[in-house]
Amino acid sequence: MAFNIPRGTQDILPGESERWQYVENIARETCHAYHYQEIRTPIFEHTELFSRGVGESTDIVQKEMYTFADKKGRSLTLRPEGTASAVRSFVENKLFANPIQPTKLYYIGPMFRYERPQTGRYRQFYQFGIEAIGSSDPAIDAEVIALAMSVYRKAGLKNIKLVINSLGDKTSRAAHREALIRHFEPRIDEFCGDCQKRLQQNPLRILDCKKDRDHELLKSAPSILEYLNEESKAYFSKVQQYLTDIGISFEVDPNLVRGLDYYNHTAFEIMSDAEGFGAITTLAGGGRYDGLTEEIGGPKAPGIGFAMSIERLLAALDAENVKLAIDQGIDCYIVTLGEKAKDFSVSLLYKLREEGLSAEIDYECKKMKGQFKAADRLNAKYIAILGDDELSQNKINVKDAETGEQQEVKLDEFIRYMKAHTER
Ligand code: HAM
């Protein structure tokens, strides 16, 4: 019986995995510069964390979670996103007691959602995300957005667009909620069953409905921006001012609502504008969640963050034809002729590697021609040729693959020679 990979998942094979590492390194370096530190939380959590944290009325909780009972009957869920786990850990490990706040965290790892797979949408996907928990200064909102934009810019993307909105504070949201109910209630029977439930539960979700997205009432729905109170308005304009000061351009879209319940104040998404990028253009999404720590039983600690999928970042790079500067080659390939030379090369290879050079040999005892071919395939910068004869004369031939120049080197000088020639 042959096995296939589960629907909506991918194998990242050698050749492709280097691209992942490349962009993940950019993410890590950028986090280092902005002083965000890595957090690693479990892949699964108690289901309740997500139903409370992400929100009962969201599509994620209603339809998309991989939930299972363990052998003791506890309900566990493969994490559909990283924020709830980061905030749970912040509360559980009392990171709020650290004298330096906000606590600035980042994560890179797989998330799981039972969605309909298509280009850019998977059931297992990798998110790089950050969370700054413990500050409600609008400057941190700008910092979080700047970090996301910086990663895209460093990776080489040019056609990206930042869209921001404010969902306001509790009072503004309550006023907007009432307005939405008044707007939709008279004609709610024209909407799908989900939206009929959403009307009382969380009418904001109607604006996000995939089935009813073309209904005329969506276009005329009251905008949150009209319901922001003075404080929320002031907060939002301060965020915009900081973004402008930093030099980040943005659009305000009053219809941007996001698909998770924990947001208030700033919400944002970053889209690809690249031609031919496909139907799904959102690369990253995030926002402020000032009530989340309390929702899951912790002290008040306002937070903001974002997450981006690595898959979509790589797809956007493809769409823009960006070639990543990945060095796929190895430093040295040892070609051997004869039994003794091969045996000797085993320890030579070890020494090269211990000095930090990437080196390879043929274990399959191919003919010399085959070994040279392999060196070429592996993009070796240098080819070291050792036969039994050379070995007895304590020397080795080193060929520069690019220039074709060949040099005879004393065997006991070889490691030093290679180190000097491959210094990065
Ligand atoms: P989200 O908008 O649900 O937010 O997801 C963030 C990003 O994850 C999306 O913009 C997209 O790049 C990626 N993503 C989501 N679902 C899929 C999928 N099925 N396949 C591929 N990529 C996907 C969150 O997850 C929030 N936790 C973000 C956040 C952090 N807000 C505050 N802090």
Automatic annotation (TrEMBL):
Gene Ontology biological process: histidyl-tRNA aminoacylation
UniProt cross-references to InterPro entries, sorted A to Z: aa-tRNA-synth_II (IPR006195), aa-tRNA-synth_II/BPL/LPL (IPR045864), Anticodon-bd (IPR004154), Anticodon-bd_dom_sf (IPR036621), His-tRNA-ligase (IPR015807), HisRS-like_core (IPR041715), HisRS/HisZ (IPR004516), HisRS_anticodon (IPR033656)
Keywords: Aminoacyl-tRNA synthetase, ATP-binding, Cytoplasm, Ligase, Nucleotide-binding, Protein biosynthesis
Binding, L-histidine: 81-83, 113, 127, 131, 258, 262-263
Parts of the chain that traverse the membrane: none
Presence of keyword Chaperone: no
Residue span, Aminoacyl-transfer RNA synthetases class-II family profile domain: 23-317
Any single GO CC term annotated in Swiss-Prot or TrEMBL for this entry: cytoplasm
Catalytic activity: tRNA(His) + L-histidine + ATP = L-histidyl-tRNA(His) + AMP + diphosphate + H(+)
Cell compartment(s), UniProt: Cytoplasm
Protein name per its UniProtKB record: Histidine--tRNA ligase
CDD domains the UniProt entry points to: HisRS-like_core (cd00773), HisRS_anticodon (cd00859)
The keyword Aminoacyl-tRNA synthetase is assigned to this record: yes
Family per similarity comment: Belongs to the class-II aminoacyl-tRNA synthetase family.
Quaternary assembly: Homodimer.
GO MF term (any one): transferase activity
Pfam family, one: HGTP_anticodon
EC code: 6.1.1.21
Top-level enzyme category: ligase
Organism whose genome encodes this protein: Bacillus sonorensis L12
The gene coding this protein: hisS
